[in-house]
Structures are given as C-alpha cells and as structure tokens.
C-alpha cells in the first residue's frame, strides 16, 4: 500500500501487498521516485536508467508514530 510517485508530476501508483509496483515515467530519464507509506520515513530514489525489472527499496520505520487508531463505520 505504499505510494510511488514520479516527482514533479501527478504520475503515481500504489504497491501491492508484496511491495511490487509498475510505473511508466512521464519525463525523460533520470527521474526521481518518491515513496511514502504511513509509519515509515518517506524516501526519494533517483532512477538514471532502466536496465532491470527489479528495484530494491527498503523503507525505514518512522519514530513519529507510537500508535494508530482506526475507526470503521458500517
């Protein structure tokens, strides 16, 4: 459920439950991808060339959240 956005555009996608995603750049390379997920430190990744289908990104847990309260209405 992380958001992956091409910086400077409204081009974004969400990761699946395994963290996999696919995005087609709107700008010429190099591009910057911004990755955001609640409870983790946002990260920016510079992509200079696409020579592989795999991009290994590890997010660091954020110290800002101690707990989250979710309220559901039915």
State the low-pLDDT regions, or none. Answer: none
Gross morphology: elongated
Q: What is the alpha-carbon Rg in Å?
A: 14 Å
Distance between termini? 23 Å
Q: Beta fraction of the residues? A: 15-25%
Helix-strand makeup class: mainly beta
What does this structure look like?
The protein is mainly β and 74 residues long. It contains no helices and four strands. The protein has strands spanning 3-6, 12-14, 31-36, 43-47. The two termini are 23 Å apart. The relative contact order is 0.22.
Secondary structure blueprint with pairings:
Blueprint: E1 3-6, E2 12-14, E3 31-36, E4 43-47
Antiparallel strand pairs: 1-2, 1-3, 3-4
Short description:
With 74 residues, the protein is mainly β. It is built from no helices and four strands.
Keywords for this structure?
74 residues, mainly beta, four-stranded antiparallel β-sheet, 4 strands, 0% helix
């Amino acid at each position: 459920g992380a958001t992956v956005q091409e910086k400077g555009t409204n081009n974004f996608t969400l990761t699946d439950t395994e963290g996999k995603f696919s995005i087609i750049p709107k700008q010429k390379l190099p591009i910057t991808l911004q990755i955001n997920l609640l409870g983790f430190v946002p990260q920016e990744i510079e992509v200079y060339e696409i020579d592989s289908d795999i991009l290994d990104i590890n997010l660091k847990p954020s110290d800002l959240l101690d707990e989250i309260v979710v309220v559901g209405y039915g």
